[in-house]
Design a protein that fits this description.
- Chain A is mainly α.
- Chain A has five helices and no strands.
- Chain A is about 80% helix and about 0% strand.
- In chain A, about 20% of the residues are buried.
- Chain B has about 230 residues and is mostly helical.
- Chain B is about 80% helix and about 0% strand.
- Chain B contains eight helices and no strands.
- Chain B is elongated and about 60 Å long.
- The chains are: A mainly alpha (about 120), B mainly alpha (about 230).
- At the A-B interface, α1, α2, α3 and α5 of A face α1, α2, α5 and α8 of B.
């Protein structure tokens, strides 16, 4: 019986460890509020009518990147489940594809001589 | 309990995770790996579509301002004047409306994770409520896109009129098709839930649909900023 108890405890530890890696419901709501706030700021920023293109575009791109990371990291559990530093194959697969997509973007623009820099 | 029996029980727990997934030497289930690879390929698809749109947009404005009849012949005079006066396509967009659509899609991502959380906790009612809410919000987004497409078409931006229209409708249309696919998946899950067969042992299925749904949301985050907000 003692052995059985130990086995059950181990199983519960594994279970709890899996859940500990996922955000709580409160954290999900916090992420959502952050996303909504960032969207509102993005829209407001686009209405400022800034003449300086860099001052207009760069903050918009930065906010877009933060929203991207928030959804991928918290909602898709990428931050919790797929830590790239742990070397898990699928996180690399997705990360590599994402990198490749960005490379495709720049190659297409370079091919048409439309690079933004 | 003998050592052999304990080893067997522990092995069984290692082979299956607690949410119906199947553990492998990679660390997580093959289904999840397949979904991440699929989403990786989707990055390439949407990367190419967004690049094409941006290229056509830059050329389109240049040609419209220059008054190239090959580009402007299929457009109403008022629309051409509007583009020429602004020197961009931004006056064409209905930003408040699209912002509301974006907010709805972001909200659907929240309801999706809440559905996943509910199914892992075997909370049947919450699972059904959040799955239905996600499908409803997704449908609202699609309804908004249909309205937007109709409005743009009536204003003179057609699919085959010029490259800008083609690339815009292809990009946003592909995204809309993905959202529609996601809604069908959610409706299937809801059907299974109402039959009482969506329990925590199938939580990974909900998680996979959730991964797809959040990816669609992420793509819209990019489209909203790059297509609608950046001039």
């Amino acid at each position: 019986m003692a052995d059985s108890t130990v086995t059950t405890e181990v199983a519960h530890d594994v279970h709890d460890e899996d859940h500990a890696h996922h955000p709580t419901e409160r954290q999900y709501w916090v992420v959502f509020v952050a996303l909504a706030a960032l969207t509102a700021i993005e829209v407001a920023w686009s209405y400022l009518g800034l003449d300086n293109r860099a001052a207009l575009v760069l903050p918009l791109l930065a906010m877009m990147a933060v929203k991207f990371l928030l959804v991928a990291g918290a909602f898709m559990h990428l931050y919790f489940d797929l830590k790239i530093i742990n070397g898990r194959l699928f996180s690399w697969a997705f990360g590599f594809s994402l990198l490749l997509a960005v490379v495709v973007y720049f190659v297409v623009f370079a091919a048409f001589d439309k690079l933004p820099f | 309990m003998s050592d052999v029996a304990v080893a067997q029980v522990v092995e069984t727990h290692d082979a299956h995770d607690d949410h119906g997934g199947h553990r492998t030497s990679l660390g997580l289930s093959n289904m999840k790996l397949a979904m991440w690879l699929f989403l990786g390929s989707e990055c390439l698809l949407f990367g190419a579509l967004i690049s094409t749109f941006l290229l056509s947009k830059a050329n389109f404005i240049t040609e419209v301002v220059a008054g190239n009849p090959n580009v402007t012949s299929t457009m109403p005079a008022e629309l051409i004047e509007e583009f020429q006066a602004a020197g961009s396509v931004e006056p064409f967009w209905d930003i408040p409306f699209t912002s509301a659509s974006s907010f709805i899609l972001l909200m659907s991502s929240l309801t999706m994770v809440l559905a996943h959380k509910a199914v892992t906790e075997d909370d049947d009612l919450q699972t059904k409520v959040w799955l239905a809410a996600t499908a409803l919000l997704g449908s609202t987004f699609i309804a908004g896109q249909v309205y937007e497409f109709t409005a743009f078409f009536r204003e003179g931006l057609t699919y085959d009129g010029n490259l800008f229209g083609s690339s815009f409708y292809t990009l946003t249309g592909f995204h809309g098709a993905h959202v529609t696919g996601g809604i069908l998946m959610l409706m299937s899950l809801l059907f299974v839930a109402f039959r009482g067969k969506l329990k925590s042992d199938r939580a990974e299925t909900v998680e996979l649909v959730g991964l797809y749904w959040h990816f669609v949301d992420i793509v819209w985050v990019l489209i909203f900023t790059i297509v609608y907000l950046i001039p």
